[in-house]
Write a structure and sequence with these properties.
178 residues, two-stranded antiparallel sheet, 2% strand, elongated
């Protein structure tokens, strides 16, 4: 004899209970996203109008700000009512993620930016999508063990105006490893 458990009806799904410290972490992430977006908007404009210049000045900072402001640990991976895995998005919609994931592909067209600025833009896009994925995969660990807070600190570090330059640090490290 085989016993098969039927999935619970949708109205029997327990309500989401926030993790300890979640509101503070999400507020910190939203603020880090606003600072990163402001840094992107402060980058030099293209010397002549170009699609990538318009994108860097508008769509990309808007996507960073939207992603960091919409993070939602309740949108995590879970089992659907039919017993199938529902992949979460951490609160970030597919369009916003698409804008962030195209950053490595378009930076070669932003030749007026310095290598340091390219690296910083890559870091911003990577950290932003990484935080959403962390919250989608395991929100409890990401929040309770400080992973989101550390990634927000990384985002702030990458966009600090007084930063000595990530490209210079990378070049220095490469030279000393030889």
């Amino acid at each position: 004899m085989t016993i098969t458990y039927l999935p619970l009806p949708a109205d029997d799904v327990p309500p989401y209970e926030p993790w300890a410290g979640e509101p503070e972490i999400l507020a910190e992430a939203a603020e880090a996203g606003r600072r990163a977006a402001a840094w992107i908007r402060s980058l030099p404009a293209a010397p002549a109008p170009r699609p990538v210049g318009t994108w860097l000045a508008g769509a990309l900072p808007d996507a960073v700000e939207a992603a960091m402001g919409s993070l939602d640990p309740a949108q995590c991976d879970r089992m659907g009512p039919d017993g199938r895995l529902v992949e979460g998005n951490g609160g970030v919609d597919a369009g916003t993620l698409s804008t962030l994931t195209v950053v490595p592909c378009v930076l070669s067209d932003a030749d007026w930016l310095t290598p340091d600025q390219h690296i910083r833009l890559l870091a911003v896009a990577s950290v932003t999508t990484g935080i959403a994925r962390l919250l989608a995969d395991d929100p409890g660990t990401a929040i309770l063990h400080g992973l989101v807070a550390r990634m927000c600190a990384t985002l702030d570090h990458a966009t600090r105006p007084d930063h000595p330059g990530l490209a210079m640090q990378f070049e220095h490290t490469v030279r000393h490893e030889r």
